[in-house]
Amino acid sequence: MDPKGKVALVTGGARIGQAVAQELARHGCSLALIWRESRAPAEASAAEARAAGVRAVTLQADALVETQVGAAVDKAARELGRIDILINMASTYQSAPLAALGSLAWAEAVDSNARSAFLFSVKTAPHMRKAGSGRIINFSDWTAVSGRPRYTGYTPYYVAKAAVAGMTESLALELAPDILVNAIAPGPILPPPGLSADDSDKVIAATPLRRWGGAEEIAKAVLFLVQTEFVTGECLRVDGGRHLY
């Protein structure tokens, strides 16, 4: 799919999401940017998209509330005329030690990472079919796609991202041939806020390419999965070879 003249709906538009939005706008793709609390990054991405000559709207919605998701998707389609691409980047990454893990923390992790992607997928699919084709790109994690939990204290997160990978495969089958569904599984892309220099060095030492990838590498992967015509049901690791160690 050529992104020029198309419309992409992007959830989770902070940090890496801003780079993804900018890359799509540079290729002539209009944007509907969904935000819940981080309005400023969404507005900044929208302004940059308009400066690049494409249309952009920002819409507030809680990705866990089905009625809000449906309303935001429908409004984006009305304002921009169509929806061709969905980028499900909304996610949370929080430690949840097993000894203190309760059902609420479990539900929050699974819902914010997997249920949100499912809701946006099922709400946007009819609009994509109306447009004649579509692309859904989910976000898993290199650990889940590699089948290696790696870190203790993150069981709900790991399970949720494994669910995203499974959902990607299932939706690819359900929505074929009109809609291609794939996922990206990032590794060391950007250091988390507050990460110490020592911990950053440890990550680099455990990554064969010996560096953090940078948000632009995710943007490149998104563009590939938008443009491909024969890849579906895949989870693409963008991790600098981290899974090899």
Structure description:
This protein is α/β, with parallel strands linked by helices and 245 residues long. The protein has a single domain, classed as NAD(P)-binding Rossmann-like Domain (Rossmann fold). The chain contains eight helices and seven strands; from the N terminus they run βαβαβαβαβααβααβ. The chain has helices at 16-26, 39-51, 66-80, 103-131, 142-146, 155-175, 197-205, 215-227, and strands spanning 7-11, 30-35, 56-60, 85-88, 134-139, 179-186, 235-238. Helix 1 packs parallel to helix 2 and helix 3 runs parallel beside helix 4 (103-131). The N and C termini lie far apart (35 Å). The model has no long low-confidence stretch (mean pLDDT 94).
| Overall body shape | globular
Terminus-to-terminus distance: 35 Å
User: What is the domain tally?
Assistant: 1
Task: Return the CATH class.
Answer: Alpha Beta
Q: What number is the mean pLDDT?
A: 94
Q: In what order do the strands lie side by side in the largest sheet?
A: 3-2-1-4-5-6-7
Q: What can be said about this structure in brief?
A:
The chain is α/β, with parallel strands linked by helices and 245 residues long. It has helices at 16-26, 39-51, 66-80, 103-131, 142-146, 155-175, 197-205, 215-227; strands spanning 7-11, 30-35, 56-60, 85-88, 134-139, 179-186, 235-238. β1 (7-11), α1 and β2 form a beta-alpha-beta unit.
